[in-house]
Amino acid sequence: MRRLILLRHAKAVPQGDMDDEERPLAPRGRRDTPKIAEFAAAQALAPDLALVSPSQRTRETWELFAPAFRKAPRHRLEPRIYAASSERLLYLVRETDNAVQTLLLVGHNPGFEDLVRLLAGAGETGALIRFGGSMPTASLAVLDLPGNWEDVEPRTGRLEIFVTPKSLGKDDD
Question: Is 173's pLDDT higher than 70?
């Protein structure tokens, strides 16, 4: 059994005149990320490896998320996550080394919510209801997948956890 965790970047500032990849986190994103990280640490959701999109907002999300764990998880920037479709994300998942039991991707929509829809053939009722087909900023989805990474197929995963800052009762807005 493998575990895939998807963390959508936290709330970013509007694009304005800057390039999309350069958008930093908004104040709300800086408040929300540690709350989700605290939840993940309490649930023992430490990844063996985190692949992080190179955008400013995803790197900042990771930098606020990682310290929640006693030992900083191994991570690397992965340019292929930025603006990736669910199919491209599935390819990244399938190429993961099988020594990794728990993989975390830190990235973007619509690819992330599409990947959850693609992989989740079943799930914990509350998680499925909270997901409802969308991943707001700073949301966390945890899917359990049978077999090895290279064998991951659509509809074979189980959505075990889906939380947002709001569902944790910790949304400041």
Answer: no
d(CA 82, CA 96): 17
> Which residues on neighbouring strands pair with residue 7, listed in sequence order?
106, 140
Query: What pLDDT, in 10s, does the model give residues 53-88?
Result: 999 999 999 999 999 999 989 999 999 999 999 999
Question: DSSP character for 82?
Answer: T
Helix residue spans in the chain (DSSP H): 27-42, 56-65, 86-94, 111-119, 125-131
What's the mean pLDDT in 135-146?
98
Residue spans per domain, the chain: 2-12+21-142+159-163
Contacts of 74 (CB under 8 A, 6+ apart): 48, 49, 50
User: Do 110 and 131 touch, CB atoms closer than 8 A?
Assistant: no
CB-based contact 102:48 (threshold 8 Å):
yes
156, two tokens: 């074979």
CATH code of domain 2-12+21-142+159-163: 3.40.50.1240
CA–CA dist 157, 167 (Å, integer):
22
Facing residues of 4 across strands? Answer: 103, 143
